[in-house]
Specification:
It is globular, with a radius of gyration of 17 Å. The chain is mainly β. Helix 1 runs parallel beside helix 2. It has a single domain, classed as Putative cyclase (Glucose Oxidase, domain 1, 3-Layer(bba) Sandwich). It has 2 helices and 13 strands; from the N terminus they run ββββββββαβαββββ. Strands 1-13-11-5-7-9-10-4-12 form a 9-stranded mixed beta sheet, with no helix packed on it. The chain has a two-stranded antiparallel ribbon with strand order 2-3. A two-stranded parallel sheet has the order 6-8. Helix content is 9%, strand content 26%.
Length: 208
């Protein structure tokens, strides 16, 4: 079975959105010190690395993470490349190739340099693109950047269109080495009660 891991490694070097909580590990017990087990505490934002946004993150009255339908995050998907402007937003005109028929679309913008080297000029997505995808039955969009809006955006118009269409969001995926095409997506979030997001272990499985 071939599995393609599209999840960045999480460490204390992992950057998060400015002002958010970076990952840190506190070791409570350690085998090397004579403890019966090694035991750690993780403290971090739920919006770090590869993660799912819950609708409550960007819309009043939206579902929290444990209320999201699991089938959003498992099933056939398409990966597509995009050539958007740095610091700007990807529209339909920036997608490489025809827009595939799919319920789950992953967009490789190539504009985020990695979780250990933050750059604030990553691409967002145009609100009009989300309207188009929603009209075509897309239920989930994932991308390789920390946000579907640009870092400079204040009113988050693209998040608002996701909320209007009740579409799910995955952010922070590693898609650079993934060829465009069709795959099975598995990116399950944790059922964190009341939370506005969750880390995911996102993988793709090529179809035979």
């Amino acid at each position: 079975m071939t599995l393609i891991d599209i999840t960045p490694v999480i460490s204390d070097r992992t950057h998060v959105y400015p002002g958010d909580t970076r990952p840190s590990r506190e070791v409570l017990w350690q085998l090397e010190d004579g403890a019966p087990v090694t035991l750690s505490t993780l403290r971090t934002s739920v919006h770090m690395g590869a993660h799912a946004d819950a609708p409550s993150h960007y819309g009043k009255g939206g579902r929290s993470m444990e209320q999201q339908p699991l089938d959003l995050y498992v099933g056939p998907c398409a990966v597509i490349k995009a050539n958007g402007p740095r610091g700007g937003s990807v529209g339909i005109e920036h997608l490489v190739g025809a827009l595939p028929e799919t319920e789950r679309l992953l967009i490789d913008t190539g504009s985020f340099d990695g979780v250990e080297a933050w750059n604030n000029d990553f691409c967002g997505l145009q609100p009009e693109l989300i309207d188009l995808l929603g009209s075509r039955g897309v239920r989930l969009v994932g991308l390789d950047t920390p946000s579907v809006d640009t870092q400079e955006s204040k009113d988050l118009p693209t998040h608002a269109r996701f909320f209007a269409h009740d579409m799910a969001i995955l952010e922070g995926l590693v898609l650079k080495e993934v060829p465009a095409g069709h795959y099975e997506l598995i990116a399950l979030p944790l059922p964190l009660e009341g939370f506005d997001g969750s880390p995911v272990r996102a993988i793709l499985r090529p179809f035979d």
